[in-house]
Amino acid sequence: MPLHRRAAFAALALLASLDASAHAILTDSTPKANGSVPAGHVALVLKYNSKIDQARSRLLLIASDKSETPLAITADAKKPNELDSSADLKPGSYVIRWQALALDGHITRGDLPFTVTTAP
Ligand SMILES: [Cu+2]
């Protein structure tokens, strides 16, 4: 491969790695992944490594019977790296399927499984 083409590929690889660092990666959450919370009104917080477009990100709650409920995301300009919501949940196992749009225009997706226990 000619040297100038190698340099071009190296530059592209560098750009790709820089871009990857801007993707939204889930860094913390409430409930924690595989964690548990008591039944009732449950605050849901997904925290990312970077700012995200809250209006164009998505949260879907999947119950153990596979039923799916879209969760409204609470827009909060003071917490630009979070997707916040809440839901009234009965005991059982759930998954939040999240889709986060980072400000670089790229979407990342993931599943956050957790358990709701009988309220004390
Ligand atoms: Cu990106």
Write the layout of secondary structure elements.
Layout: H1 3-20, E1 26-30, E2 36-38, E3 40-48, E4 58-63, E5 68-71, E6 82-89, E7 92-101, E8 107-117
Parallel strand pairs: 2-8
Antiparallel strand pairs: 1-3, 3-6, 4-5, 4-7, 7-8
This protein binds copper (II) ion.
Copper (II) ion is lined by residues 19, 22-23, 102, 104, 106.
Structural class, from secondary structure content?
A: alpha+beta
Q: Spatial order of the strands in the main sheet?
A: 2-8-7-4-5
Beta-strand proportion = over 45%
Helix content: 10-25%
Q: According to CATH, what is the topology? A: Immunoglobulin-like
Q: How many whole angstroms does the radius of gyration measure? A: 18 Å
Spans of at least 5 consecutive residues whose pLDDT stays below 50 are none
Bound molecules: copper (II) ion
Q: Describe the main β-sheet briefly.
A: 5 strands, mixed
Multimerization state: single chain
The H-and-E topology, N to C, reads as HEEEEEEEE
Q: Strand tally, please?
A: 8
Give the domain tally: 1
CATH architecture descriptor name: Sandwich
Q: Span from first to last CA?
A: 68 Å
The helix count comes to 1
Summarize model confidence as the mean pLDDT. 90
CATH class type: Mainly Beta
The coarse silhouette is elongated
